[in-house]
Each structure stands twice: as C-alpha cells, then as structure tokens.
Amino acid sequence: MRDLEKIRGSRVYGRRQGPALTKARQARLDEWLPKIEITLSAQGPSAAPESHFDLSLKDHWLEIGFGKGEHLAAQAKTHPDIGMIGCEPFLNGVSGLVDLVDQENLANVRIFTDDARLLMDSLPDRSIGRGFILFPDPWPKARHHKRRMVSAGNIVVLSRILKDGAELRIGTDHMEYCRWIMAHMLENPDFIWISDSPDDWRRRPDDWPASRYEIKSLAQGRKSSYLRFIRRPRST
Questions:
Q1: What is the pLDDT of residues 57-76, one digit of tens each?
Q2: 15 lies in a domain?
Q3: Of 10, 17, 80, 148, which residue is most buried, by most CB within 10 angstroms?
Q4: Are 61 and 130 in contact (CB under 8 A)?
Q5: Is residue 24 within 8 Å of 76, Cβ to Cβ?
Q6: Residue 49 has pLDDT above 60, yes or no
Q7: For residue 121, is it within any domain?
Q8: How far apart are the C-alpha atoms of 161 and 166, rounded to whole Å?
C-alpha cells in the first residue's frame, strides 16, 4: 500500500472551485453533501464500500473524476441496486452531481471530495465491481505527465480493488494520452483489453452514458476512444 501521508501532502492540480455557486446551488450543496459525502478515518482500517451506504446493494462501482456528474448520475438511475461512488475534488463538479442527486432522488450515490488515491487506498481487495476514468485531464506537456491519473502506480491499486472479471472503462479524446493509456494498461498483466475490432474502441457502448464534456468535445470535432479492460481472474 502506498504512503497515504505523502498522498495527502501532494497537490491536486487545478482550481478547487470555479465560478461562485448561486445561492440555490450552494444551499442544495449544504443540504445534501453531509448526507452523501464519504469521509475517511486517519487511523481506521480499510472501509468496505457497503459501509458508506445505508441500503443493501448488490455491487459497488467507482468513478474517478466525475466532472459534473452526468455519467455517474445516469448510471445510478439505470442501476438503482448498484452503489455508485464518485471522486471529484473540484467544488463546482461536486455541486453539479449534487444537483442531479436531488433532481432524480438518487439514494445510491456517494461522493468523495478529496484526492481519489486516498479513497482507492482505503478500499479492501476485490471490493469494486466496475471502474470508470472518463476523459481525465491529459496533461499534454511532457513535464506534467507525472500528474496523469492513468499511471503504473494507480493501475496497480485498481488491479487490487477490482473484483475478478470487473470492467475498467477509460475514455479520452486526446490521442497521445490514448497511446499512453494503452501502453501502461497493457504493461500490467492483470488486465485484458476488450477489443475484437476498431469499432470496439471507436464507438461508445450503449450502456456508457455521455458526459457534458464528451458532448462538447464531439461538437468541436474531436474523436474519442472508449477503452474497456477486464480484471483478469486471479489464480487460485
């Protein structure tokens, strides 16, 4: 397990908050966030995903960097028996998901508002049934590549927390980052790339709801890649 104190001391790049929230959105955030926010104990043991929910659910999925929350909320609405856990450190994005939780009355959503690596390291082995990293910041400059979410170290942790046969979905509209993702994922023997033809990664699957960012990207003429990987079953 990684040194959590080093993670806590490292910087989450970008602005924590963009434009000021309206009074209505701030009030909604103040009302809802205490009910659905995940908090971690500095000294406590790893916490199973089900410990963060007050209802019985058949599985738990994790989205890292949910943006404004459109994809996560759509998955939560489609799968009310799945606990959807989202990580997002930026307040405007958190507020966006809270608005959707309120509008759709989604009881199966929980939010972690700090560095996703802290939550990932708190999760037990084989506890997540599906993972999503959708359109993460590509940090295109070479000197910033160390900031990329898809890295060898994070892939190792994802391998640990994903169940055997669990799917990891990664989307990007940045071709150089796509090549980076493929190189790093295929270097790890724990994952199998799902691809029988180019359509498997050029077309978004029907059960992969679009996010606001992706719709904007497509409108601007950028092509996206939809990469799907399976956590290889561990040997007994």
A1: 999 999 999 999 999 999 99
A2: no
A3: 148
A4: yes
A5: no
A6: yes
A7: yes
A8: 10
Catalytic residue among 114, 115, 137, 190: 137
As given in the structure block, the two tokens for residue 168 are 């990891």
Domain tally, the chain: 1
**Does residue 137 carry a catalytic annotation?**
yes
- Tell whether the model's pLDDT for residue 15 goes beyond 70: no
CB atoms within 10 A of CB 129: 19
> In which domain, by residue range, is 53 found?
4-9+22-231
Helices (H), the chain: 4-9, 23-36, 70-78, 91-104, 116-122, 152-161, 175-187, 199-202, 212-219
Choose among 76, 80, 85, 78: nearest CA to 50: 85
- Nearest alpha-carbon partner for 201 in 183, 218, 224, 226: 226
Backbone dihedral angles phi then psi of residue 193, each to the nearest 5 degrees: -80, 130
Q: Can you read off the two tokens belonging to residue 197?
A: 């033809």
Each residue's pLDDT tens digit, 124-133: 999 999 999 9
Task: Give this prediction's pTM.
Answer: 0.90
Question: Is residue 236 in some structural domain?
Answer: no
CATH number for the domain spanning 155: value is 3.40.50.150
Residue 200 burial (CB count, 10 A):
14
Q: Which neighbouring-strand residues pair with 162?
A: 128
Its sign, for the CA torsion 67, 48, 60, 35, is negative
Cβ 60 vs Cβ 128: under 8 Å:
yes
Q: What is the pLDDT of residues 133-154, one digit of tens each?
A: 999 999 889 999 999 999 999 9
